[in-house]
């Protein structure tokens, strides 16, 4: 790759260093490695176009995290995002339900509304506080709190009574 100037070099260095974290965030949001790569690629392209302004603005990591979340939410609104290719015919029952709790929780997360899913991923899987989650989503802290409560309640409904122990009382 031929780097034209210092700004471009800084962009490449920044993206190389942050790529694993961006892919992890995108995967946690999408639940699919290929879609996660698409989200990160779209974000990287947008970041390249805006690099000089983003770099001058200050907290680059927070801005890029917000870009990833917004790209995910934007793609969720498209009809193709609701199409899932499977290796089973619809009339066949699954052989056995997954036993790994992480797989069960990931599947339940995919059934939530996209903003609730994004809030729970940012809050609990990326361990962001309420104010940083609000900044990433471009909303008020109160919205994050209500989306967290609603998302956890929906997870409890989806996962059933056994989830009460895992997702018991309140939010942090």
UniProtKB/TrEMBL annotation:
Domain RNA polymerase sigma-70 region, chain residue ranges per copy: 18-80
Tell me which UniProt keywords the record has, alphabetically.
DNA-binding, Sigma factor, Transcription, Transcription regulation
Transmembrane region(s)? none
Q: Which GO terms describe its biological process?
A: DNA-templated transcription initiation
Any one GO molecular-function label of the UniProt entry: sigma factor activity
What are the RNA polymerase sigma factor 70 region 4 type domain coordinates in residue numbering? 105-155
Q: Which InterPro entries does the UniProt entry name for this protein?
A: RNA_pol_sigma-70-like, RNA_pol_sigma-70_dom, RNA_pol_sigma-E_actinobac, RNA_pol_sigma70_r2, RNA_pol_sigma70_r4_t2, RNA_pol_sigma_r2, RNA_pol_sigma_r3/r4-like, WH-like_DNA-bd_sf
Q: Name one Pfam family in it.
A: Sigma70_r4_2
What does the sequence similarity comment in the record state about its family? Answer: Belongs to the sigma-70 factor family. ECF subfamily.
Please report the name of this protein according to its UniProt entry.
RNA polymerase sigma24 factor
* Gene from which the chain derives: rpoE_38
């Amino acid at each position: 790759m031929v780097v034209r100037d210092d700004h471009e070099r800084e962009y490449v260095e920044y993206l190389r260093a942050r790529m694993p974290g961006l892919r992890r965030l995108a995967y946690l949001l999408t639940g699919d490695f290929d879609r996660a790569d698409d989200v990160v690629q779209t974000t990287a392209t947008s970041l390249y176009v805006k690099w000089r302004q983003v770099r001058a603005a200050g907290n680059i990591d927070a801005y890029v995290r917000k870009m990833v979340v917004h790209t995910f939410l934007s793609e969720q609104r498209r009809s193709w995002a609701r199409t899932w290719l499977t290796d089973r015919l619809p009339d066949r029952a699954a052989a056995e339900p997954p036993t790994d709790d992480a797989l069960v929780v990931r599947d339940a997360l995919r059934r939530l509304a996209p903003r609730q899913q994004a809030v729970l991923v940012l809050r609990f899987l990326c361990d962001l506080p309420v104010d940083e989650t609000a900044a990433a989503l471009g909303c008020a802290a109160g919205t994050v709190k209500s989306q967290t409560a609603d998302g956890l309640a929906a997870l409890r409904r989806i996962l059933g009574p056994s989830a009460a122990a895992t997702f018991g009382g309140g939010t942090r």
